[in-house]
Amino acid sequence: SYVLTQPPSVSVAPGKTARITCGGNNIESKSVNWYQQKPGQAPVLVIYYDNDRPSGIPERFSGSNSGNTATLTISKVEAGDEADYFCQVWDSSSDFSVLFGGGTKLTVL
Amino acid sequence: EVQLLESGGGLVQPGGSLRLSCAASGFTFSGSAMSWVRQAPGKGLEWVSTISGNAASTYYADSVKGRFTISRDNSKNTLYLQMNSLRAEDTAVYYCAKLLGSPGPFDYWGQGTLVTVSS
Q1: Residue B55 class from Cβ within 10 Å (0-12 exposed, 13-18 middle, 19+ buried)?
Q2: How close does chain B come to A70, measured CA to CA in Å?
Q3: CB contact under 8 A, B106 and A92
Q4: Average pLDDT of B10-28?
Q5: Of residues A33, A42, A88, nearest to B109 (C-beta)
Q6: Looking at the predicted structure, is the pLDDT value of residue A101 above 80?
Q7: How does pLDDT run across B73-108, given as a tens digit for each residue?
Q8: Is the terminal CB of chain A with fewer CB neighbours within 10 Å at N or C?
């Protein structure tokens, strides 16, 4: 079955750029969505269809998808960006199912 | 404004049953596929089930297939999850989520309801 692999943690200083990866076999053939989840809160969609931003999400958030790796990039990181981030795809190879990556804890130093 | 409000969570013994509800508002409910996604304490997100807007199609994760049933009442703008034969590993916060297209991203989420399976 298809597997999405994320690093457990990423640390970045305020004002710098954070890159969170999501690895999967030929993931570029799938549309990748990204969610931000702060403690005690529901997930929030921050990037969909690889690199589209929902309304209300700052332009600092962007996405890319190539080869075996999709990447969520957060530029000019702020303290408020500290959260867990999950990537997600639809796996059409096995009937119909949704896969989430294991999640990455972004720490703002 | 889109709102999703889950209810029905609680403490249940192993082997027991529970029905979750999700009241939706702020969008055309019958036109949207809906899903349940759960999160065990301290763990990541796990997709549980999806139902199409007209309820003609339903999909389940292998971990719940045969035990859980997703349904919806479009006249009441409400999504349901009937959970039977519950196990300790079903303990989680259960979120209902709206789909932007199917397949598509989960563009809105409820605040979740906690289900605890324990004796």
Answers
A1: middle
A2: 15
A3: no
A4: 97
A5: A42
A6: yes
A7: 999 999 999 999 999 999 999 999 999 987 889 999
A8: N
Q: How many Å from the N-terminal Cα to the C-terminal Cα in chain B?
A: 40
Task: Give the Cα separation of A43 and B97 in Å (integer).
Answer: 10
- Residues in B touching A103 (Cβ below 8 Å): 44-45
SS3 state at A1: coil
Q: Buried b vs exposed e over B78-103: b needs ≥16 C-beta within 10 Å?
A: bbbbebeebeeebbbbbbbbbbbebb
> Dihedral angle at the C-alpha atoms of B10, B13, B18, B22, nearest 10 degrees?
30
Residue A52 per-residue DSSP state: B
Helix (H, G, I), strand (E, B) or coil at A79: helix
Q: Best mutation site among A92, A98, A99, A104 for testing chain B: the one with the most B CBs within 10 Å?
A: A98
- Nearest by CB to residue B59, choosing from A31, A88, A96, is A96
The mean pLDDT of chain B is: 96
The first and second tokens of residue B47, run together, are 């997709």
